[in-house]
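User: Just a sanity check before I run the rest of the batch. Below are the structure tokens for the first item. I only need the designed sequence back.
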């Protein structure tokens, strides 16, 4: 499946418009926007990996992947001084995966785990 970012953006805009008309607050609208970002990242990665990497390892594999993402977030935030200046590493720069992608992956793995739990990841 190819990612059609324009179509997904149109869907996001339509959902946000309807929610706005229904009185949704700014955080709800931003949350919906983030969900559509997560959908795009999921489709791109699912195209690269396919379903078998998750199917082969099941819930345990998803839990390990979520733990890896949490550890990465903790390490990055520690180096950026969020846990106190004594942990800050001013020479550190994030490489490879953006911190936003890490947050999105964490959420996507939660949904993948839910699909496995419901018996829908086949």
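Assistant: Here's the designed sequence for the first item:
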């Amino acid at each position: 499946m190819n990612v059609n970012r324009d179509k997904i953006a149109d869907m996001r805009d339509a959902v946000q418009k309807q929610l706005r008309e229904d009185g949704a607050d700014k955080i709800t609208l931003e949350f919906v926007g983030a969900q559509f970002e997560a959908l795009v990242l999921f489709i791109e990665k699912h195209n690269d990996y396919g379903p078998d990497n998750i199917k082969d390892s099941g819930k345990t594999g998803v839990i390990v992947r979520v733990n890896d993402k949490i550890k990465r977030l903790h390490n990055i935030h520690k180096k950026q001084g969020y846990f106190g200046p004594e942990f800050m590493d001013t020479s550190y720069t994030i490489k490879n995966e953006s911190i936003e992608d890490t947050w999105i992956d964490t959420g996507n793995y939660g949904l993948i785990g839910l699909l496995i739990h419901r018996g829908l990841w086949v």
